[in-house]
């Protein structure tokens, strides 16, 4: 709804902008009221649940809340503690989510890039850079990634090569490069 409002304004198109903005505000308030777990100190996968979901790492990217908001910071922390194994990030705990699939799944490559981005957006540039550089070592000999990886073995799982994984890689590299250029204390870390 926010994007529809922005597009209508930028394109100067007739649209029910006030109604769309009102709807966006209602949705946002509902997510803030029902999508937060006091127990986990994190936004969760669905209302009435304490199950975490790594897709909540995108909240700051999409402008739902500012990156410095304590709820965003706490969600990053909770996601890292509960869903990450080193630099591997699982979307959710499969045993807590009735997704209709049998067994466990690997860690999604794009989620590692979302975690790096969330760290970067929240001002943790050095930590984001370290995680990025370490994760790049997991690429194959051509610098490619699969859709998922097994956190225990590093084995590639799912589709290979995976476009979404590489979109995440490119966006993360660009965002890190821009952040390093802005931060004179870290500018020497840029590779020429």
Task: Report what the structure shows.
This protein has 192 residues and is mostly helical. 45% of the residues lie in helices and 7% in strands. The chain has 6 helices and 7 strands, in the order H-H-E-E-H-E-E-E-H-H-E-E-H. The strands form 3 sheets. The protein has a 3-stranded antiparallel β-sheet. A two-stranded antiparallel ribbon has the order 1-2. Strands 3-4 form a two-stranded antiparallel sheet. Strand 1 (36-37) and strand 2 form a beta hairpin. Helix 5 (125-136) packs across helix 6 (163-182). The mean pLDDT is 88.
Unreliable segments (pLDDT under 50, ≥5 consecutive)?
A: none
Which bin fits the share of residues in helices?
Answer: 40-55%
Kindly provide the radius of gyration, computed on alpha-carbon positions and rounded to a whole number of angstroms: 18 Å
- The count of strands amounts to 7
Q: Into how many domains do the coordinates divide?
A: 2
* Strand line-up in the sheet with most strands: 5-6-7
Oligomer: single chain
| Tally of individual helices | 6
**Estimated share of beta-strand residues:** 5-15%
Element order: H for helix, E for strand:
HHEEHEEEHHEEH
The CATH topology of the largest domain is Glycosyltransferase
The level-1 CATH class of the largest domain = Mainly Alpha
**Overall geometry:** globular
Distance between the termini: 41 Å
CATH architecture of the largest domain: Alpha/alpha barrel
Major sheet size, sense and barrel closure: 3 strands, antiparallel
Structural class: mainly alpha
Report mean pLDDT, rounded to a whole number: 88
């Amino acid at each position: 709804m926010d994007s529809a409002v922005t597009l209508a304004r930028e394109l100067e198109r007739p649209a029910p902008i006030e109604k769309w903005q009102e709807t966006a505000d209602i949705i946002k308030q509902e997510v803030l009221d029902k999508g937060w777990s006091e127990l986990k100190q994190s936004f969760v996968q669905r209302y009435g649940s304490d199950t975490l979901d790594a897709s909540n790492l995108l909240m700051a990217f999409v402008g739902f809340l500012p990156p410095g908001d304590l709820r965003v910071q706490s969600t990053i922390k909770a996601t890292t503690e509960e869903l990450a194994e080193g630099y591997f990030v699982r979307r959710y705990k499969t045993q807590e989510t009735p997704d209709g699939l049998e067994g466990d799944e690997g860690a999604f490559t794009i989620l590692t890039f979302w975690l790096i981005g969330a760290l970067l957006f929240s001002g943790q540039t050095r930590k984001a850079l370290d995680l990025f550089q370490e994760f790049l070592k997991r690429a194959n000999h051509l610098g490619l990634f699969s859709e998922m990886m097994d956190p225990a073995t590093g084995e590639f799982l799912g589709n290979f090569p995976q476009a979404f994984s590489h979109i995440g890689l490119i966006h993360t590299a660009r965002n890190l490069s821009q952040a390093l250029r802005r931060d004179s204390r870290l500018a020497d870390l840029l590779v020429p």
